[in-house]
Each structure stands twice: as C-alpha cells, then as structure tokens.
Amino acid sequence: MKLPSINRGTIGEDLSAGLVLGIQSVPDGMAAGLLALVNPVYGLYGYMTGVFSGAFFTSSTFMSIQATSAMALIVASVPQVTQATDPNSALFALALLTGVLMLAAGILKLGRLVRFVPNSVMTGFVNAVAVLIVLGQLDDLTGYSTTGPNRVVRTFDLLVNLDQVHLPTLIVGLLTIILIVTLEKTSLKAMGMVVAMIFASLVVPLFGAHQVAQVRDIAEIPGSLPLPMLPPLSVLPGLIIPALALAFVGLVQGASITQSVPNPDGKYPDASRDFIGQGAANLVAGLLQGMPVGGSMSATALVRSAGARSRLANMIAGVTMALAILLFGRLVGLLAMPALAGLLIVVGFRTLKLDQVQMVWRTVLVQRVVMLITFVAALLVPLQFAVLIGVALAVLLFVFQQSNKITVVAWKIEPGRYPQESAPPAVVPAQRVTVLVPYGSLFYAAAPVFAEQLPEVTADSRHAVVILALRGKKDVGSTLLEVFTRYADALRQQESKLMLAGVDPNVKEQMERTEVLHQIGHENVFLAQEGVGQALQDAVDDAEKWIVTKAQAA
After folding, report:
1. Are 153 and 353 in contact (CB under 8 A)?
2. 307: left (phi > 0), else alpha (psi -120 to 50), else beta?
3. Which of 202, 319, 322, 549 is spaced 20 to 30 Å from 484 by Cα?
4. Which residues are CB-neighbours of 184 under 8 A, at least 6 positions away?
5. 363 vs 211: CA distance, rounded Å
6. Which residues of 513-552 are buried (b: 16+ CB within 10 A; e: fewer)?
7. At residue 436, what are phi and psi to the nearest 5 degrees?
8. Which residues pair with 409 in a beta bridge?
9. Could you tell me the residue ranges of all domains in the chain?
C-alpha cells in the first residue's frame, strides 16, 4: 500500500492543530483508560499510538483514531481484562485481535456492509453508552465506592447512601465540570478541558484535601515510552466475542466519520481502506501496551476545527503525547481523580444524541422497539453481548423489512404501446396470457409473501399462460424455486402453464442443478437479452401461439 504524501504548504496549520489535539488527548486518554477500568496509562498509550500510526493507513485525511468511549466500556465488560491476575496481557491481546478483525474487514472490502446497521440500533446503543459513561464516574465524583452487578444498580446504591459522599471530592469534580463548560466558551475553546482539570487538581493540595484520590494513587505514570510487548497467544480464544464487539463498534463509528467528513479534495474516503487504518492502529497499540482504539468522531471534529489541513496533524498529535509522557509524566500523576470523572461526565452528556432519539421515535413502531431493546440491553448486560444483540436485531429488521417489500403487479402488453400496469387478477383467467412483474427482493423470507400475491389457479383456469418477468433478479433460493414448481404444477393440472421471462443465466443454472428447469420445461424459460423487454415479448408471442393451438385442438 502506498503511503500518503504530506502537503508541505500546510505544515503550519497542521502543527497548530496537532498540538491542540495532542495536549487535549493526554487527560482524555487517561480518562478512557479509567473508563475501561484499566491502568489509565494504557489509555494514554492507546491514544498516542492509535492517532499516530492510523494516520499513515486510513483513506480519510482527518480521521483521528483513539480509544472511544463505547469501546472503553466494552473493555470494562471483559472479565479477562478487569478481573484476571494478569489483566494487562489480556488487554494488549484484545487490541491485537481487534486489529486483526478490523484489518480482515478492510481487506475483504466489508465497508459496504455497514449500511445494513439501522440507525435505530446505533441510536439506542450510543445513547446507552452516554448514560453508562455518566453513571460509571459517580464513584470517583463522590468518593463513595458503590456495589452492584451493573452501573444502574450501583447508581441506586449511591442514591440510598448519599450520606457517605466525600464532600471535598465532590467539590473538585463539580468544579471541573463548571470550569470546562465556562472555559470552552472563551478563547481557550477545546484547551479549556485541560486548563479546567489542572486548576481543579491544584485545589487539592492548596486546600489540604489530602483524601481526594489522585491518578498516582491507582497507577504509576512512567517517564518513558512503552516498549514492544507480545502478549501470550493462549489468552486469545477467550477474547473472540469481545474482540468482535469492539471491531463492530469501532468500524461503525469509524464509518460515520468516513461518510460525513470529506477529504480536502471534496471526495469522501473509502470505508474499507479506513477499516485497514483502524486495524493497523490496533496492531500497533496492542504491541506497544495500548488499549483497543477506533475512529473517534469527537477527536476528528476537534482536529478539523483546530485548523488541520492534512493527515500530518494527527501525526503531530501523537508526537505531542509522546513528549508529554517523557517530559511531564510525573506531573500527570497529580491529576485529581474527580477531575477526570468530571471530564468524562461532560463527555457522556455530550455523547447523548437526543435529536436522533426523537427522529427514530417519529418513525414506525418497529424502529422504536429496536431502539429501546438495544438501549435497555446495553444498560443491563455486558456491552459486548449488547452489541451482538444489536447486530442480531439489525439482521432481523432487515429481513423483516425486505420480506414485506415484495409487490406483484400485472402488465397488459399491446403492440406499439407502453405496458399498462394494474393489480393482478384474483384468479388466473382462462385462455389468456397473464404477465406478472414482481417488485422487490425475492430472497427466501419474501417467497411466501410473493406466493400469496399470485393469482389463484382454479378449475376454470384452463388453457392459460402465466408469465413471470424476472429481469434483474440475479439470484434465487430454493424457497422461491419451490414456489415456481408448485405454481407450475397447479397450472399444469388445468392444462395451463408457467413461463419465466428475462431469466439471468445464473438463475437458469440454479434451476438446472435443482431439476426445476425440467419440471417447468426448458421451452418455457426465456433468458434475459440485451434488449430490455425482448425476452418478455418473445415469451408473450410464444404464449399466444400456444393458446391458439390449444383452442384449435379443442
């Protein structure tokens, strides 16, 4: 793969944008690690390696690859990572396995499949993630350690034990939230997050609130860059399901960037190539002790709003984070935990997509039900399983919608005139040619709906011909072929017959392999031709001659 070139004329703008993203990503990366219930340093390493290495391989010029909130919550739901005696090996192996799956999806050109995930599923999932982000930070915000099987139950535990809240910790967290909202409206903009966290953390030693937890209390911040580390392959089999969930969520979130953020030339990136970039970033992150990463819409929006003109901005952001680790690693450990919690709570509220909820709610009942099921599942069960539930719902929704979109109409064909379309007759008329055209998919779930719309064959349907126009139907399954066979048999019993016009060669081959062609009759199948409607006209001419012959014989 040819590496992308860098525009030297935009180095100044890219340098400025990269510095903004890099500085802002230091606390944000640690917060992602905290959200994933792992050492915050691994979140920072994931940010650093992901945003730098991904910039070399994505089709998108501006896509920033970092540990997204949704992916962090999935990691937090993996027992091998959060409860094992050696969780770090599982974390890095999870990043590697996620990278392999993303890379395979890109190589296989699966970017086009993302469109099959309905908006209702992603709306329910994203909003549940937003709620979980907020609920997951209440312990660090209040200083009270809740108990319970999930975040919803632990939130109720907090509400009935409000007297256990540590007031200094709560003040630092609330101060951080207020400062972020206030400072972002000034000239600091995105940098207001960094300033707010630093200022709120300084309050801790100034006011002697020594019981307020700091980052160094839960993780040692090294003053060096991570060294390559290959985790044991023995942990991989148990990580397949969470890796699939991470890959799915990361690819869908990345695809939203691909579809909405054009490159500088005005063209939209290739989703499959962006899959490859995310996969490569995860492989690098896993080898360099980072957590799983994916395309981040918020980081991409930040680097663009900061003035990025090329992919060099993301590379500079990665270098900026590396320098921050080398030069200021020890100082990062002084950040107050409630300050990080305040940052994540702001992120959580901003992740809510209430406008999308409203839009889905105004559509059909099925979409509303799917959104609600996905939302509730994401709140109550581990996210890797909630993702699989969402995917299953997406597939079922697609099958349901497609199976009900088939419509059969009748065409009246007269010489020198356009076909006249009408509803098909209820009963096959005797001694007449009936041309039927199916609109929509004819895959297996739609076959029964298609069969119900065919005119009924009765004892009066003698010496009749029914022609099915199948032009454009590239593939049919055994369920539909069985419908053809039964209908042809019903017509044959009344000395009538079924003809198929505009048949694709692949379909005819399927019919030949299954012996359906023999039952319908080779002479009754007309292959699609270059001229549109030519096969159908040949079938009509043949059918009319056959009816005349039958009439003369009678």
Report:
1. no
2. left
3. 549
4. 190, 192, 193
5. 51
6. eeebbebbeeebbbebeeeebebbebbbebbeebbeebee
7. -115, 135
8. 437
9. 11-400, 407-553
> Which amino acid appears at position 469 of this protein?
A
Which among 433, 435, 410 has a CA at the least distance from the CA of 422? 410
Nearest Cα to Cα of residue 78 among 279, 215, 253, 236: 236
Please tell me the distance from the alpha carbon of residue 350 to that of residue 332, in angstroms, as a whole number. Answer: 25
pLDDT averaged over 10-residue windows placed end to end, the chain, 554 residues: 61 86 84 88 94 94 91 90 74 95 93 75 84 90 91 94 94 94 86 86 80 81 85 88 91 82 88 94 95 89 82 93 87 86 86 89 85 90 76 75 78 85 94 93 77 93 94 82 93 95 92 91 93 92 93 79
Distance of CA 534 to the CA centre of its chain: 43
Position 59: which residue type? S
CB 150 within 8 A of CB 368: no
Tell me, what amino acid is at 37? L
Measured distance CA(120)–CA(102) in Å, rounded: 23
- Lookup: tokens for 454: 């065919």
Query: How high is the pLDDT of residue 246?
Result: 93
Integer Cα distance of 23 and 434 in angstroms: 72
**Left (φ > 0), alpha (ψ -120 to 50) or beta: where does 6 sit?**
beta
Indicate the residue type of 14: D
Full DSSP string of 360-389: HHTS-HHHHHHHHHHHHHHHHS-HHHHHHH
CATH for the stretch 407-553: 3.30.750.24
For the chain, state the CA radius of gyration. 31
C-alpha 131/C-alpha 544 separation (Å) is: 67
